[in-house]
Amino acid sequence: MIEAVGLTKRYGDKTAVYNLSFQVRPGAVTGFLGPNGSGKSTTMRMVLGLDNPTSGTVTIGGYPYRKLPNAPRQVGALLDAKAVHGGRSARAHLLSLAQLSGIPARRVDEVLGVVGLQEVARKRSKGFSLGMGQRLGIAAALLGDPQVLLFDEPVNGLDPEGILWVRNLMKALAAEGRTVFVSSHLMSEMALTADHLIVIGRGQLLADMSVKDFISANSADFARVRTPDSEPQLREKLSAALTEAGGHVLPEQDGALRVTGLPLPRISDLAHEADVRLWELSPHQASLEEAYMRMTQGVVDYRSTIDQKAGLQQQLPPGAQPPMPVPGQGQPGWYAPPPPQQGGQPFGMPAGPSGPYGGAPAGPYGAPGAVGHPNPYAAPAAPPVQAAPPAPVPQPQAAQEQPPAAPASAPADKTQPEDAR
Amino acid sequence: MSTHQPPMPQAAAAAPDRQAAPGGSYPGYSSPIPVVRTHLGHALASEWTKIKSVRSTMWTLGVFVLLVIGIGLLTGFAVESSAGDADLAGENPLSFGFFGVLLGSICVITLGVLTTASEYGTGMIRTTMTACPSRGRVLAAKAIVFFVVAFAVTLAAVSFVAMVHSSMLSGTAAEKPSGGTWFKATVGVSLYIALLGLLSLVIGSIIRHSAGAITIMIGVVLAPLVIALFMAASSLHKVQQWLLEYSIPSQLSVFYDNSLTQSGPSGWDPLWIMLGVTAAAYAGAYALLQSRDV
């Protein structure tokens, strides 16, 4: 059991972690997610007593790490696979740790077997690949057969077989009743491994909930609608009609439309009424990855921009098509179709413009419709939207889970920036 | 505060999940491996494994032995063949080991710094401090293991050179060394060099950067003499004198009774000076280790 209360860490004027409170329970794999630089590793170091929090506390089994009796037998950690003296053999490295923790030396050979490094046990770790380094780090974490395990990015550099192995290892460790706390930025990996998620961005808690709740709270299922390419006016006509009916429409790179807030049959009806032919009308289920992207995109510190190559670009020969940009590249809002609450909000809240999303223009096609004045057509559209189980909106400041039954108290998510759409 | 309420339903909801997992009741997992209460002895064993399992130890100590013995023998041959009886009259035959030890001290400094700073350079220190949250114990174990290794190796090399010199020059006018002279030129020098290495280890722990700490320590050894050479002005004479007397090479030469100056530290003074400096630096390193982030 790991418990953090109001954990804050400042380096000079940079706040790495701010007022973070969470619990990691035994018997489950808890994923710790966040973009690069969001404070995951800092938090892990504070859990292990390596960094002193500026304020707040974090305890393991009720003790701060540095006061924990028999700490290496209670907690094992993989912080950084490269945190090994490269000139020392794998076996000598583990042996020195075992001796330090009062663990019998034969345990070293056991864990070397568990991670599959027996063959290279006497080789210097300098020559290890990243994946072998990870295995050595995992071996060090398992050395004390501890009750609490922390892994910082354990699958970095592992091959598919290794990733599968780590995934099963985590689950097996948790099934034995241990507390397993795994940080990652690989959402897809966490979707398969974790039971519970703690998501942070810029050092603050964004979500603390089960994987299932996380997906339903943060992923909007949307419909992809495609009109005939040859007739762009149909597309505009349809978006106007859909927006009129209370849907949110986002244009996609290739000419399709992402529609949220309207059920598929209703979209079809509207298209029919507007006399627009459809080439595609498909349901799209957002993955955990998209849910995560949406949640964290406002707090990403390092974001790529389009490579302009200004002044370096040659004139395209006449008639040549410029290359199509890859969808999502340099487009901040790409992964973020409005989540269900946002799509639903204009109906649920008569005072639409006061919401953080009400006032912003909804893209080139969305501006005139639903915003501002209550729409007479909105009412019939609302029930299907709200038929979906209302999900809690994560509240960053409350730092606690909301029981799924209380979404009404959730104000609009303030961590979502304006560019979230 | 309303923050206390939300966890309750959540905890209740999580409970069935935990029970669904085999063996997943709240107290969690308990290991079949017996739990041993760790103490300094465990840390010493660990540090011994660490210091003997890296090549830099072999390299630095090997070069150290080579320098001490090689330069010692060369000096011995040179003195034996060229110096006349008049030159050697009243000289301490053991004192010709000085040059090898002075050069070799750089190797001991390097090993001392590497013992602590390389853990910071590689990130290994995080693993170590996770395995042993009692940071003072780790520093103490490093200091003890390093000191013993450095002392033993220095003693062996220096004694060998002293014996060779003593037998080489026994037929000349050089004075026959007394027991006290022998003791100072072997054990005294070894203690001093091991303490100098320990000071480097402590500086390595404070600076946490190998190259930086090695540079500082070499500067500490050489700079006072070099600076003193350029202090020609008479107003600086006292400072110059002090630098000459208390620079580390001068202190080292006190053990061989051939000090660069006639005043200044004598007898076992250099050892007490070095002990005081090292103890102060150790206290500083300990305090920093406790308060700083690893």
UniProtKB/TrEMBL annotation, chain A:
Gene3D superfamilies: P-loop containing nucleotide triphosphate hydrolases. It holds the Pfam family ABC_tran. Residues 313-421 are annotated as: Disordered. Residues 342-354, 362-380, 396-412 have a biased composition (Low complexity). SUPFAM superfamilies: P-loop containing nucleoside triphosphate hydrolases. PROSITE patterns: ABC_TRANSPORTER_2 (PS50893). The keyword Nucleotide-binding applies. It comes from the Bacteria. Keywords: ATP-binding, Nucleotide-binding, Transport. Residues 2-227 form the ABC transporter domain. One of its GO terms (molecular function) is ATP hydrolysis activity. Residues 381-395 have a biased composition (Pro residues). Belongs to the ABC transporter superfamily. This is ABC transporter ATP-binding protein. It comes from Streptomyces bungoensis.
Automatic annotation (TrEMBL), chain B:
It comes from the Bacteria. The chain crosses the membrane at residues 58-78, 98-117, 138-162, 182-204, 211-233, 271-289. Residues 10-22 have a biased composition (Low complexity). Coiled coil: none annotated. The lineage of its organism: Bacteria, Bacillati, Actinomycetota, Actinomycetes, Kitasatosporales. This is ABC transporter. Pfam families: ABC2_membrane_4. Residues 1-23 are annotated as: Disordered. Keywords: Membrane, Transmembrane, Transmembrane helix.
